[in-house]
Amino acid sequence: MLGPYRELLRTPHALPMVAVGFLGRLPLSMVGLGSLLVVEDYTGSYALGGAVAATGAVTTSLFGPLIGRAADAYGQRRVLLPILGVFVVAGTVFLWAVREGQSRWIMFAAAGVAGACIPPVSSMLRTRWTFLLKGSPRLPTALAFESVVDEFTFIVGPVLVTFLSTTGHTTSGVVTAFVLAAVGGLLFAAQRKTEPPPGGAHLGRGPSALRIPGLRVLCVVGFVIGGILGDLQVSLVAFSDEVGAYSLSGVLIAALAVGSMASGVLWGTLHFQAPLHRRLINVLVGLTLLSIPLVMVGDIWLMGIAVAVFGFAISPSLITSFTLVEVLVPKAIVTEGFTWVGTAVGLGVAVGAGSSGLLVESFGANQAFLVATVLALSATLTVARFQRTLWSGLRQDSVGAARPGHD
C-alpha cells in the first residue's frame, strides 16, 4: 500500500523538500497554544491567553492568502525571506512584552504581526508538488501525502509545545515554535530546485483566485471541515469530562486524527473512476452520515471508535478539495488558491469551537456534536447545488481552454 508514497519520495529533490517543509509547518500547530500557556503563566489569565492566541490565529487566516498571492507573483523565496524577518522581530517583541509586563496592546500587536507572518508552508508545498508533478498520475498521491502530514503535525505540535512549556521554563514551548518556524522557513526557502517560477502577475492588478466560482465553493467546504474540527476539539473534551474520564480527552482527539491519517494514507493509493466533483459530494455524504453516531454514544470507549471511524471521512474531504483547487485554479495563482482554502479551514475552526462551546454549556456535549452534522450536511447541499459550477471548471480545464497561466 505504501508503494505509491515510496515512488513519490523518489521524485528528484522531493525528500529534502518534504523534510524541511515538515519543520516549517510544525510551528503552525504550536504557536497558538504556546502563546496561551506563556501568557497565562505570566498573567494568571486563561481568558487573556486565549484572546492573544485567537488574535494570532485570525491574522494568520487573513494574511495567508496575501502571502500566497505574493509568492505566486514574485516567487516563494523572495516572499519567504522578508516575512521571516518580520516574524522573528514580532516574536521577540511578543516575548519581551509578556515577560516584562508591558502594555497589553503591545502584546496583542506583536502576536498579530507574528501570526500574520507565519509562512504558509503547507500551501507552498502543495504548489511545489503541482509544479514537479503537473499532469502526472502521482499528483493526487502527493496531495494526499500533504494532508496526512498536516494531520501528523497537529498531533505532534500540541503535544510537543505542552511538554516543553510544562516541564521546563514556560517560554520554552513558544520559543521552540518560533525557532522552528525561522529555521524551517529558511531551509525551505533554500530548496531552489523545487521552487516553481513566479507567475509574473502584478500583485495589485492581477485577478484574485477567489474570483473563480469553483474555488468559492471549495472555500465553503474548507470552512465546514474546519468548523467540524473546532467543534470536536471542544465537544470531545466536554464529553470526557461529563462521563468522568477527563484525562482521556486527548485519547479521543488522537483517535480522530489517527482515523483521518489512516484514510488519507489509503486514499492516496487508490485510483478512482468517478470525476472529482462527484467524488467530493460522495465523501461529504459519508462525513454527514458518520457524524450522527457521535450524538448518541454515551461510553468513552465507544466514542473513541466512533470518532476514529468519523475521522475516516475528514482527510478524503480535504484531499479531494485541494485536488480540485489544483485543477480549477490557474497555476500562476495556485498558491493563493490553496491558501484561501486553508484560511477557510482556520476560520471554520474558530467558529466551530465557539459554537460548540455555547451548546455544551446549554445542552451538553452530545448535543454539541450536532454542529458537526449540520455543518457536514450544509457542505453536502452546497456542493450538490454547485455541481455544475465544479463540473464546468473541470471540463474547461480538460479541453485546454485558454485561461491565464495554463499551458
CATH topology of the largest domain: Growth Hormone, Chain: A
Amino- and carboxy-terminal Cα gap = 33 Å
- Give the helix tally: 18
Q: Helical content, roughly?
A: over 70%
Supply Rg.
21 Å
CATH superfamily of the largest domain: MFS general substrate transporter like domains
Secondary structure class reads: mainly alpha
Q: Can you tell me the CATH architecture of the largest domain?
A: Up-down Bundle
Average pLDDT:
83
Largest β sheet strand count, sense and barrel closure: none
Give the overall silhouette. Answer: globular
**Low-confidence regions:** 397-407
Order of helices and strands: HHHHHHHHHHHHHHHHHH
Give the percentage of residues in beta strands: under 5%
Q: How many domains?
A: 2
Let me know the number of strands. 0
Please identify the top-level CATH class of the largest domain. Answer: Mainly Alpha
Model description:
It is globular and about 55 Å long. It has helices spanning 3-9, 14-25, 31-43, 46-74, 76-99, 104-116, 121-133, 139-167, 172-189, 213-242, 249-267, 276-296, 300-311, 314-328, 334-363, 365-368, 370-385, 387-398. 78% of the residues lie in helices and 0% in strands. Helix 3 runs antiparallel to helix 9 (172-189) and helix 5 (76-99) runs antiparallel to helix 6 (104-116). It has 407 residues and is mainly alpha-helical. It folds into 2 domains: 1-204, Growth Hormone, Chain: A (Up-down Bundle), CATH 1.20.1250.20; 207-398, MFS general substrate transporter like domains (Growth Hormone, Chain: A). The chain has 18 helices and no strands.
